[in-house]
Amino acid sequence: MPLDIASAAYAVTIAAGGLLGYVKAGSVPSLAAGLAFGSVMGIGAYQTSQNPDNYGLSLATSTVLAGLMGYRFATSGKFMPAGLVATLRGDIAELMCVPVFVKYIENRVIIIKSSTNVIHHGRG
């Protein structure tokens, strides 16, 4: 399977943001959170690369991070870095959820077609 580039890029962005927070402001919590969330997101990117249906860890990680950063953005009003991370999370969620929704719809159509074939066979 090919690499899930979107999730891998998001993982690198999260880790780099934590490192940047440490370099610019000396923030050890930013470094720790960035490396922790980036690492977990990297594992999630690996999982979705192996099996695209295995998106749970990536989705959970990005949701928690979006909640934390969304709260920080709401209280501080500063777009960087909280607003940017929350915005990126929305893009990643779209990339993960749209294929899942499409597959769900395709499966429903197959089930409906199968059940209509059964009904027609029963009449004939």
From TrEMBL:
Gene Ontology cellular component annotations, sorted alphabetically: mitochondrial membrane
PANTHER family: TRANSMEMBRANE PROTEIN 14 HOMOLOG, TRANSMEMBRANE PROTEIN 14, 15
The protein, known as: Transmembrane protein 14C
Parts of the chain that traverse the membrane: 6-23, 30-49, 55-74
Source lineage: Eukaryota, Metazoa, Spiralia, Lophotrochozoa, Mollusca
Keyword vocabulary terms for this entry: Membrane, Transmembrane, Transmembrane helix
Predominant subcellular localization, coarse grouping: membrane
Family designation: Belongs to the TMEM14 family.
An individual GO BP term: regulation of heme biosynthetic process
Compartment(s) of residence: Membrane
